[in-house]
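User: quick one, sequence for these C-alpha cells?
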C-alpha cells in the first residue's frame, strides 16, 4: 500500500461518517435511553465490533455520542476505564455505590475519567443536545454490565442511576463520601487545568497523565496550536489519535523524506500508528485546539521541535 493510501486510511471525517441510533441494542424499546453513536476508532461500548469502516483500535477506542435533552444512559460498569470529554452542551454524570449516587455537571472541554468498575450513568438535563467523545481504555472492551436498567428496575430508580430519593449527592457538596472524593479526583475541568507552553510554540493541557488525572491505560492531552505554528516529524512507540475540536490543522506523515499531508477540521480524527513519523502545522488564521490520545500510561518522551 502506498504511503498516501495508508495515510488516507487513518483519517475519519465527521462529515462523511454516520450516526447509528441502534448502536446499543439494550436500549431498544426505551425511548428515554435514546442516543446515537458515531464510531471513529473501534466500536467503544457498542457490541457492533464488526464495523469495518472504523479505524482499527490498539489501546483505546474513540466514538462520539449524541444525546438529546431529557434522555439518559442507565447506570452500568466496565472492566476498564472510560473517559467522557464534552464537545457541546452540558452532561450530568452520576456515579453509584451501594445506593448512594454522586452527580457532576460537565460543560464543553471538561472530562471525567470513569474509573474501572465504577458504576456510572449520564443524562442530558439541559436545553440543548449534548455531544461528547467517549474513549475506552482498551481496543476491544467487554460489553457494559447494567446495574439499574429500566428493564430490571423501576423507571424512577433507573433515571436516578440507582439512588433512592434523598440519596443523590452533588460533587460540590461537603458530604464525606469516599465516592465523592474518588469522583473529585477524576474530573478535569478545562478552566482549572494550566496550559504548559512549549518552546516549540504550542500549549499542552494535560487531562490524563503527569499533571492531570493519573493515567492507568492511555494519556489524554489538549494541544493549543496558534496560527502558523507547526512541529517537525516525531515518532511514538504507541499509536496517537487527534480529535480536532476547533480550527483546521494540517497533519502529515513522513517516510524517507517523502511527506503526505492533509488539512482536517472540527470533529475529524486521525490515528497515527506506532512507529510512524508524523507532524502537524496550523496554516490558518484561527487557532487550533485538539484532543490528543496517546496509547500508553507512560510519561511523555517526545521533545517537540518547532518547524522552521
Ligand atoms: Fe460507560
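Assistant:
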Amino acid at each position: 500500500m502506498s504511503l498516501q493510501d495508508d495515510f488516507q486510511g487513518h483519517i475519519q471525517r465527521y462529515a462523511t461518517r454516520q450516526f447509528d441510533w441502534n448502536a446499543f441494542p439494550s436500549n431498544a424499546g426505551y425511548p428515554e435511553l435514546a442516543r446515537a453513536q458515531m464510531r471513529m476508532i473501534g466500536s467503544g461500548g457498542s457490541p457492533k465490533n464488526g464495523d469495518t469502516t472504523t479505524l482499527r483500535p490498539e489501546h483505546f477506542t474513540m466514538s462520539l455520542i449524541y444525546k438529546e435533552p431529557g434522555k439518559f444512559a442507565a447506570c452500568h460498569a466496565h472492566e476498564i476505564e472510560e473517559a467522557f470529554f464534552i464537545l457541546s452542551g452540558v452532561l450530568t454524570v452520576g456515579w453509584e455505590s451501594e445506593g448512594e449516587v454522586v452527580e457532576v455537571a460537565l460543560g464543553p472541554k471538561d472530562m471525567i475519567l470513569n474509573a474501572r468498575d465504577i458504576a456510572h450513568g449520564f443524562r442530558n438535563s439541559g436545553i440543548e443536545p449534548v455531544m461528547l467523545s467517549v474513549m475506552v481504555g482498551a481496543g476491544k472492551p467487554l460489553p457494559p454490565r447494567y446495574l439499574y436498567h429500566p428493564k430490571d428496575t423501576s423507571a424512577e430508580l433507573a433515571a436516578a442511576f440507582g439512588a433512592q430519593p434523598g440519596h443523590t449527592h452533588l460533587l460540590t457538596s461537603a458530604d464525606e463520601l469516599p465516592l465523592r472524593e474518588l469522583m473529585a479526583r477524576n474530573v478535569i475541568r478545562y478552566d482549572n487545568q494550566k496550559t504548559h507552553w512549549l518552546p516549540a510554540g504550542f500549549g499542552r493541557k494535560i487531562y490524563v497523565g503527569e499533571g492531570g488525572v493519573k493515567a492507568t491505560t492511555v494519556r489524554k492531552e489538549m494541544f493549543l496550536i496558534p496560527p502558523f505554528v507547526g512541529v517537525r516529524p516525531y515518532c511514538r512507540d504507541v499509536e496517537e489519535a487527534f480529535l480536532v475540536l476547533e480550527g483546521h490543522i494540517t497533519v502529515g506523515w513522513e517516510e524517507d523524506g517523502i511527506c503526505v499531508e492533509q488539512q482536517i477540521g472540527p470533529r475529524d480524527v486521525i490515528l497515527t500508528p506506532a512507529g510512524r513519523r508524523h507532524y502537524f502545522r496550523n496554516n490558518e488564521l484561527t487557532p487550533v485546539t485538539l484532543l490528543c490520545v496517546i496509547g500508553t500510561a507512560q510519561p511523555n518522551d517526545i521533545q517537540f521541535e518547532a518547524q522552521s
